[in-house]
């Protein structure tokens, strides 16, 4: 089995058990997609028709406001999924950009193939049910934190929850994700380093 495909199968198996018959049904429905740094996966106006697993590299999703400022909605690294779920689920035009931050390899499943897999391999349906529940909890927690906690607490939670991610993305993306300026992020980082020493 190809290493990249094997990585996704191992990811599925972390949540649901799969046997050889299941795996043989899944593999033909997968596509590998390569992106160079700064390539776009999705741009506004396009419809997202795949679920996408990051096998190697990193991406970020963002939208721009009427003044042209970027607002980072999601950061993604290896073994994470990235998508415009609104576009995917509603089959409507995306309002987001999803762009590679590093050279990236993705494994994609077209929505038609995923629908087939739900019937052929019901455990994949269970995987997505559990995955969506987890994603919803994370989103709700992030919304709660943004309303309740100060920027330093949000930054500390971010670096403690995702210790490997900060070095992978430019500061302006991290700042945008946290809803603060680059200058303020720099001050928070210094405070965090001082508090730990």
UniProtKB/TrEMBL annotation:
This protein's name: Cyclic nucleotide-binding protein
Domain annotation Cyclic nucleotide-binding: ranges: 14-117
InterPro entries in UniProt: cNMP-bd_dom, cNMP-bd_dom_sf, RmlC-like_jellyroll
Organism expressing this protein natively: Elizabethkingia occulta
SUPFAM superfamilies cross-referenced by the UniProt entry: cAMP-binding domain-like
Coiled-coil segments on the chain, per record: none
